[in-house]
Amino acid sequence: SQQGEEDPQALSIQEGENATMNCSYKTSINNLQWYRQNSGRGLVHLILIRSNEREKHSGRLRVTLDTSKKSSSLLITASRAADTASYFCATDHDYKLSFGAGTTVTVRA
Amino acid sequence: GAGVSQSPSNKVTEKGKDVELRCDPISGHTALYWYRQSLGQGLEFLIYFQGNSAPDKSGLPSDRFSAERTGGSVSTLTIQRTQQEDSAVYLCASSLEASSYNEQFFGPGTRLTVL
Q1: Which residue of A has its CA nearest to B46?
Q2: Residue A87: which CATH number?
Q3: pLDDT tens digits for chain A (109 residues)?
Q4: Taking CB atoms and an 8 Å cutoff, what residues of chain A touch B91?
């Protein structure tokens, strides 16, 4: 069963713009991880944020975590065509990942 | 270094046949996980192994599904008497160990089609 829910389901932006997507979950977690998936195959790990962390950066990615609201956000700054993909949040509960349905991001050149 | 590898990349089988899917984790990773991704159910956890401990099988959908991990490295997921609803992409992941600090790294997946 899916614990996380991403919002929006789909996002279309112009190259250079920022993309923000949100993830909400239901139960307590050890950490929350964001993944990218191209063409319905392998998942690429983007960033892990632990339950005691509030914000994390990696290159053009910024992730926030609010455990009181059980929500997280992923911001991609200065988007590129290569960022076109599906993005998933995954919550770690007892080391098993529970994924949301994903946000499909399309970056227009 | 090599990432997680899976074989075959695609498998087409007939309903009722058994299939075996293989996963080679990243060298040195003690934790190995199986997930599947289907249109109807999204990404679902199936089973994970941590070292020599008994596996966590809580996500296996039925007793037709089983997995083993030999020598703490390679894992095989077996589906017996396949059904059409088993059609999905089966993804394997590994991590240094099962902990809240370690990322799970995924392989490219095996696309299973049951006719």
Answers
A1: A96
A2: 2.60.40.10
A3: 446 788 899 999 999 999 999 999 998 888 999 999 987 678 999 999 999 999 999 999 999 999 999 999 999 999 999 999 999 999 988 888 999 889 999 999 9
A4: 42-43
